[in-house]
Every structure is written in structure tokens, then in C-alpha cells.
């Protein structure tokens, strides 16, 4: 038993010795470094940027009531088409008490004046029939009587509008009926029957009864960084893609660049817009997230190599060109447009030259 233990100990010591020897031998070997090689070729190159944004209708309006009141009826739902002037909702009026009191007082005063004018008219007519007053005096009394009737009718109509939201003489133009101001699709009706609504005035924006938009005229609305906006001009082509519609891609033309920057997450950005063509195959909804790919610069048939093959020293740029003997020679080059992976070489290289790329393996440590 003791012999077996000794043999095991000797074997472990031997394995440890051999492992140490192999480790020291491998680390004592000289490093043999290999590099990737790239050939300079002619190709097209472009610098692009991707702008994030969303799809919106060009013409979207909030329909608001002309009076204060309570929603009595809703005739439309979100998702329905509506024509300009079509009724969306009906209101039950909540009159302002001060205005109502003033209108009632005006009616009472107008009736008193009309009663007095009628008395004067009857008396004057009796005298006129007997040829006791002149035509001029009679005409004045008739005019005063007619004016009193008009004032009473106007006061009554004003009271009806304040109290009921509509007058008997103008029922078709009732302010209790909330009508669409454009033809389009109803995107949202944020109110329900029974909700109170207020009209827009200098103190508040009023209650939105419905949001209506022309969905046949859509735009892409996004923001681009200030470092890239200088490369944009109106009319530049854009490729629009929508995240919710993976198969949808459409060309568009840049039509608006904001003259003023807005701060977004600490960066200055400029708003851009482009018309989005309609699609018979896809239902494009308002608010879809979208991307716009824009080609900022482009160069056709220029000499390019991978940008990883470059070496920088101060303001100068170098590459290592492979010679006939297989050795690499450091050579200064002039660069041009880059797309982030490949870069244009303007001077210092010829088509077919092989340049040294990144290191791929260290044989000495294997």
C-alpha cells in the first residue's frame, strides 16, 4: 500500500514538471503576428444618417364648442369619416347667470318701450286719419314703433341664444351643434355624454370635442442633430420606413427644415418634415414611429479600403502597403468620404494595392 502511494506521488510530481516545462517552452517562442489584408478597389460610397420621428397628418384640427354646455348626444365615433359641417355632437346649454339676467332685463325693457310706442302709434294714427297731424309727424311715430318692435325681437332672440343656445329664427345655425370644420377621419373623441365642455376664449383653450385629420395627406416629422443639418437641402430624397409595418418602405422628398433648433436631451436638434406617399396595401395610422434614411454625401467609383486599415499620427494618415517581397511599407495617404466602414483614398494608393488590416492571431501564444 505504501508503494502505491509513493508511485502516485512520483507520478504527480512528474506531471507537474512536464507541465511547467511545456508552459515555459511555449512562452519562450518568438511571437509570429499575422494581419488581415485588404485590396484597394473602386466602389461607390456614401455617408447616410437615420432620423427618427413619427407619421402625422399634415392637417389635424381640434373641434371645439362655440358655447359652454354639457354633451347631450354624440353622433360620431373615432375611426369614422366626417365631412366639413357635419354634426359630431349636440350640447345642452348651461347659461351664464349674469348674461341670462342681462338678456331677460333687456327683453322686459324692450317690451315696455314697445308698449309705449304702440300707444303713441295708435293715438297718432287716429289724429292722422282725421287730418289733424302732418305726414312728417306721422312718419316719425311709425318709425319709432317699428324700431321698438325690432328691438323687442332682437332682445328675445338674444335671450333664446343665451338660454337655449339657439333662436327660433336661426335653428339651422344652432351653436348647440358641434360641427366638423374639415373633411377627414375622426382620430379621437375625448369626451362622453354628460361631460361639461367650455368654449375657447382669451382665458383658456376650450374643450376638444373631437380631433379630425385628413389622413390622405401624411407627413414624416422628425429631428436631426445640428452636426448634420448643414448637409441638408430641401428636395433631398429620403427613404421612409415604419416600425409597425416591416414591409413598408417609401421614398419621399425633404420639404421643410426648421430655421430654429430645439433642445432634446441636451442636444440641439432641428425639425424636418417630408410628405409620406399613401399606400393601398398598408393602413398607415397617425402617430406611427418611423425612420428616415437620408444620404448626406455620395461619391461614385472612387478608390476605397476598410477604415480599420488606417493609422493616424497627428494630422497625417498612413497605411501599410504590401510589397513584392511580402513586406509592408508605411505610406502616407489622403482620405475622403467615409461611411463608417470603408473610406475613400484620394492619393497614396492605386487600385489592386494590398494594405495591412487588423491583427488576427498571435502564433507565439498558441
What does it look like?
The chain has 366 residues and is of the alpha+beta class. It folds into 3 domains: 33-45 and 300-365, conserved putative lor/sdh protein from methanococcus maripaludis s2 fold (Beta Barrel), CATH 2.40.420; 49-57 and 216-298, Beta Barrel (Elongation Factor Tu (Ef-tu), domain 3), CATH 2.40.30; 61-215, RNA polymerase II/Efflux pump adaptor protein, barrel-sandwich hybrid domain (OB fold (Dihydrolipoamide Acetyltransferase, E2P), Beta Barrel), CATH 2.40.50.100. 26% of the residues lie in helices and 42% in strands. It contains 4 helices and 20 strands. It has a 6-stranded antiparallel β-barrel. A 4-stranded antiparallel beta sheet has the order 3-10-8-5, with no helix packed on it. A hairpin with a 3-residue loop joins strand 18 (328-338) and strand 19. The chain is elongated and about 150 Å long. The mean pLDDT is 85.
Write the layout of secondary structure elements.
Layout: H1 2-28, E1 33-39, E2 41-57, E3 60-63, E4 69-74, E5 81-82, E6 87-93, H2 97-129, H3 135-164, E7 177-179, E8 184-188, E9 196-197, E10 210-213, E11 218-225, H4 226-229, E12 237-242, E13 245-264, E14 267-276, E15 289-306, E16 311-313, E17 316-322, E18 328-338, E19 342-347, E20 354-362
Antiparallel strand pairs: 1-20, 2-11, 2-15, 3-10, 4-6, 4-9, 5-8, 6-7, 8-10, 11-14, 12-13, 12-15, 13-14, 15-19, 16-17, 17-18, 18-19
Overall mean pLDDT stands at 85
Q: Helix fraction?
A: 25-40%
Rg (CA only) = 43 Å
Report the strand count: 20
